[in-house]
Amino acid sequence: MTQSALPDKLQNIVKMFRSAPKPLRLQVLLEYSKKLPGLPERYQNHPELLESVPECTSPFFLVTEVEGGQVDLFFDVPPEAPTVRGYAGILTEGLAGASPEDVLSIPDDFYNEMGLNELITPMRLRGMGAILHRLKNQVREKAQA
Fold this sequence. Notes:
Elements: H1 8-19, H2 22-35, H3 41-44, E1 51-52, E2 61-67, E3 70-76, H4 82-94, H5 100-104, H6 122-144
Antiparallel strand pairs: 1-2, 2-3
Helix pairs in contact: 1-4, 2-4
């Protein structure tokens, strides 16, 4: 994977994780889970507008918006799922203000560069890959509309 394929904010997060000692990486991931914002009111009472990610072992829902050449991401992940919630927090922060092209160019396994594969089970990593895949599909469809 080339780092240049990542938007700057996400690239900085990847570098920070990669340079951190293994025990600190897990702690930082958990901090990102606490930073994940709640769903906007327009989605809170409309679960039908959210896409489920059944490949995740935890309940995970997402929706994207593409407007004015910018992607906005929204996730609904319970606090009892801190690792995937942390991944959602990383995506939210790392892709804030990104263009559809930026999002679509992200390598599907960029989280391996962060060293998450040393912390998280393969099943959870597959879920993370599925999250990014579904997110990209939504961005692609909405950007073409």
